[in-house]
Amino acid sequence: MNSSIALKAENVNKIYRQGNEKIQALKNISFEVRAGEIFGLLGPNGAGKSTFINILAGTVNKTDGHINVWGFDLDKNPRQVKASLGIVPQEINVDPFFSPKNLLEIQAGLYGIKKKDRITKKILELTNLSDKANAYTRNLSGGMKRRLLVAKAMVHQPPILILDEPTAGVDVELRRKLLESVRALNKDGVTIIYTTHYLKEASDICDRIAIINSGELVALNFTKELLKNNSDLEEVFINLTNK
Fold first, then answer.
1. 8 A C-beta contact, residue 111 and residue 118
2. CATH number at residue 216
3. Burial readout 49-60 (b: 16 or more C-beta within 10 A, e: otherwise)
4. pLDDT tens per residue, range 132-149
5. Which domain holds residue 141?
């Protein structure tokens, strides 16, 4: 695989079986994510975004197709694929009785990272959590807890970070701070795959955008090109998902 390609999906299908019924969640999905970009993965609820992310995470098996992550084939090298990814889930699930610093140290230990090789301080700085490093997690705001999830996903220094609806349910100021953290991580060389329902947010932060609807890829282009004939990504999104 070309070294400038961080992730490549080729004709990926996922079929769920419910009794005699077949539900196709993904239909021949193919796209590439370039190393160093912020890539938006958009679509309405039930479009197939979470199914694709769960396939990458190894919690769902694809029906067929090929996925290559950072030069590793998902079927042949699942451990290397997992090591190449940091996945930040939608749900906030952190232990309330540990500090951010302790949680990152524990997470690094689970990955078998030696103490001398850990970058806990740097991750706390990148996610704007340095001043809360030793606070109880239960006392953090919702936005801080979301940034902590990003920090946890970075302890093994994965080249690709997947953010699944990272700003859902946070206020405007906390969203701004989280997006600053995302941009800082990207500037530091991390490739970002970003899913969101906030279309303005996607148009502001993403270099390229893929739109999935009913399991099919209906658009893939540079953000500026998608907006070329429309000033509002929401118009583009509605037009594509209503076809």
1. no
2. 3.40.50.300
3. bbbbbbbbbeeb
4. 999 999 999 888 888 899
5. 41-58+84-241
